[in-house]
Amino acid sequence: MLLTLNGIHKSFAEKPVLEDVSLSLKQGEITTLIGPNGAGKSTLAKIILGLIKPDSGTRLSNADLNIGYMPQKISIDPTLPISTCRFLQLANTSHQACHEALESVGIRHLTKTPIQRLSGGELQRALLARAILRNPNLLVLDEPVQGVDVNGQNALYKMINSLAKTLNCGVLMVSHDLHLVMSATDQVICLNRHICCEGHPEKVTQDPAFINIFGQTTAIYSHHHDHDHNLHGEVLDDHNHQHGESCNHD
Amino acid sequence: MTDFLLYAFLAGIGVASVAGPLGCFVVWRRMAYFGDTLAHSALLGVSLGVILDVNLNITVAAIPLIMAMGLVFLEQRGFLSLDTLLGILSHSALALGLILISLLPDVRVDLISLLFGDLLAVTQSDLWVIYGVACAVMLLLGLLWQQLINITVDPELAAVEGTNVTLVSTALMLITALVIALAMKVVGVLLITALLIIPAATARRLSHTPEQMAVVASVIAMIAVVMGLAMSWYIDTPAGPSVVISAGVLFSLSLGYRRLAS
């Protein structure tokens, strides 16, 4: 067990945001936190990160808990001259480690590029690289695929999955988009101020509380793409069939 | 060279050396208006110092610091935007400072030199203060540099990775208050922010790392001091404004440099 929350309550300006939330995160397990806008997902993530204190309830963490955090977005003033590599070095000063992290998220070629010049997808990868730099045993990812196109999202989820396996760490993923996340997750927690339902993806999608919030139509996403794309949208053909010209896209 | 010119030169160089790196943080963190507010409250520091008969150096640094703490407190309460809060505090402090000075029985304070600086009146003991404080500021900046950059990039990421964000940002406020107290002697209350921002903005176009930008900003501030003093010496212009306008000219030149380079 990496971290346990027990009976967490939190209000902002007398308005309750979280009510009696309890959960636990385990090593090697992917937990997905879903819920509509304003459900308190980010607040809960910040309590898990230790950035804000709950009004009541306890947060118990393992003594060697080491969190890698990938924020929802980041805005760095354009007047700050900082390369992607230097951005990573703020978390871990080793040059070698930074290069390896950039390599493992596939943007080694952007080492010297100013961080403000990265595209949405590249920036998400850079943030992911920074999150894994300190060999965390818990990764907290707040809406990790924001601003990334659908195929890029899929690639990013795959990457997160394989990185989590390599690091053998626990993962908490915050998302409002359940189609893509669910197929790779061990535990889904559906939050709407309180925990509406939780459990395995298949179980949760059939829960009346879940259907009430997200509707009946939602099904677990399974991807039928039989090939991958590189960062430029070109097909990486490792299958034995031909692609039409129209298969290349951004 | 006459003594007063040498003192002015040394004082200007000392202040410019710390104005460079601090100015970079003011630019990166968009604290220009914040700097203005602290600078205006320094005038209040002067009048309170005279009224209470304490060393002016102390009140001039202490009042902006108290103001900074108050701002943080009010901002966290969140009933007004920071922008509006700064507007209220900045101008109230300036007005109160001016009123208090005008109430002083005999005119022991030269208002114009407070507002626009009096670089040519720097004494030897001023120099000791300037270099002592400048060394302390450099030491603090050096010790906290990596953490300061880290909280500037993203305070939440920095906090998760173990940086004490409250401590580091409080230290930055302390440094800002100290530098403002120093810079007041060179360019005066109304032009302090200019001395912080213009060299940093000029350096931006010439640098690729935060450290480069800090050093280049210092050098540009020093060049502006020398140019301003020369201007003041040869065509008898007020020293503080001359330093600022020199920095402005250097900034315009840097715009041209970028165009040439590309």
Automatic annotation (TrEMBL), chain B:
The keyword Cell membrane appears for this protein: yes
Q: Which UniProt keywords apply?
A: Cell inner membrane, Cell membrane, Ion transport, Membrane, Transmembrane, Transmembrane helix, Transport, Zinc, Zinc transport
**What biological process terms from GO does the record include?**
response to zinc ion; transmembrane transport; zinc ion transport
| Recorded topology in the membrane | Multi-pass membrane protein
Compartments, as annotated in UniProt? Cell inner membrane; Cell membrane
Tell me the superkingdom of the source: Bacteria
Q: A Pfam family this protein belongs to?
A: ABC-3
Q: Where are the transmembrane segments?
A: 6-28, 40-73, 85-107, 128-148, 168-201, 213-233, 239-257
Can you supply one Gene Ontology CC term for this chain's record? ATP-binding cassette (ABC) transporter complex
Q: What does this chain do?
A: Involved in the high-affinity zinc uptake transport system.
What family does the entry list? Belongs to the ABC-3 integral membrane protein family.
What is the recorded name of this protein?
High-affinity zinc uptake system membrane protein ZnuB
